[in-house]
Amino acid sequence: DVVMTQSPLSLSVTLGQPASISCRSSQSLVHSDGNTYFNWFQQRPGQSPRRLIYKVSNRDSWVPDRFTGSGSGTDFTLKISRVEAEDVGIYYCMQGTHWVPYTFGQGTKLEIK
Amino acid sequence: QVKLQESGPGLVKPSETLSLTCTVSGGSISNYFWSWIRQPAGKGLEWIGRTHVRVGTGYTDYNPSLKSRVSMSVDTSKNQISLKLNSVTAADTAVYFCATDTTTSLDVWGQGSTVTVSS
């Protein structure tokens, strides 16, 4: 199985300041079709996860443009340009290139300082 | 927009079978792959497996870690996807989610159903 390793595991950020979360995979996530099937999910307290980003950098329709996904191969980053109160929650990375199975990172808990 | 709602018994005894359903609204159940994912309290996400309706035979992929105990199926007449996990232990206590599966991602998730394994 592909191991996904996130860092940091917790993050405390002042409102309006940037935040960055990293995710590293144990093998390249470049698919034989040339695409990289790497995703980010947000899970707000008491809610189910929601996809934020797919294929490394594509935002879902509900996602504000202060969220940016980047990376390639085995190293990926989620950046929030200016953290808002509604961004509190846990962020998970997930690879969809080497299935079965899909695998997730451990999660990064974002809180407001 | 597809909406998903998981349901099932909240309490299952050890060694018995956990059975959950995911009811789909707002879209055709035949048009999608469907995945189940679980999350123990305060912990991370584990993909359980996926299924799809195919003419003549059902299609499934299961996480090797659970493959010997899990089965999934689709009931098109009820617009439901089912999950069965047998021989459960306390380690199977979790919130269980269903989600639409694009075969490379999980895009729409249900609210989740909490299952506790306890005598």
Task: Tell me about this structure.
The complex is a heterodimer of chains A (113) and B (119). With 113 residues, chain A is an all-beta fold. In chain A, 0% of the residues lie in helices and 48% in strands. In chain A, strands 2, 4, 5, 6, 9, 10 and 11 form a seven-stranded mixed β-sheet that branches. In chain A, strands 1-3-8-7 form a four-stranded antiparallel β-sheet, with no helix packed on it. In chain A, a hairpin with a 7-residue loop joins strand 9 and strand 10. The relative contact order of chain A is 0.34. With 119 residues, chain B is mainly β. In chain B, strands 2, 4, 5, 6, 9, 10 and 11 form a seven-stranded mixed β-sheet that branches. In chain B, 39% of the residues are buried. The chains are: A mainly beta (113), B mainly beta (119). At the A-B interface, strand 5 and strand 10 of A face strand 5 and strand 10 of B.
Question: Summed up, what is this model?
Answer:
The complex is a heterodimer of chains A (113) and B (119). By secondary structure, chain A is mainly beta.
Q: Topology of this structure?
A:
The complex is a heterodimer of chains A (113) and B (119).
Chain A: E1 4-7, E2 10-13, E3 19-25, E4 38-43, E5 50-54, E6 58-59, E7 67-72, E8 75-80, E9 89-95, E10 103-104, E11 108-112
Chain B: E1 3-7, E2 11-12, E3 18-25, E4 33-39, E5 46-52, E6 59-62, E7 70-75, E8 80-85, E9 94-101, E10 106-109, E11 113-117
Parallel strand pairs in B: 2-11
Antiparallel strand pairs in B: 1-3, 3-8, 4-5, 4-9, 5-6, 7-8, 9-10, 9-11
- Which oligomeric state applies? heterodimer
Which structural class is indicated by helix and strand composition of chain A? mainly beta
**Which segments of chain A are poorly predicted (pLDDT under 50) over 5 or more consecutive residues?**
none
Number of strands of chain A: 11
Measure the end-to-end span of chain A. Answer: 36 Å
Approximate shape of chain B: globular
Shape of chain A: globular
In this structure, how is the largest beta sheet of chain A organized? Answer: 7 strands, mixed
Largest interface: A-B, 26 and 22 residues
Average pLDDT rating of chain A: 97
User: For the residues shown, what is the average pLDDT of chain B?
Assistant: 94
Helical fraction of chain A equals under 10%
The unreliable regions of chain B are none
- What fraction of the residues of chain B are assigned to beta strands by DSSP? over 45%
Give the proportion of residues in helices of chain B.
under 10%
Number of strands of chain B: 11
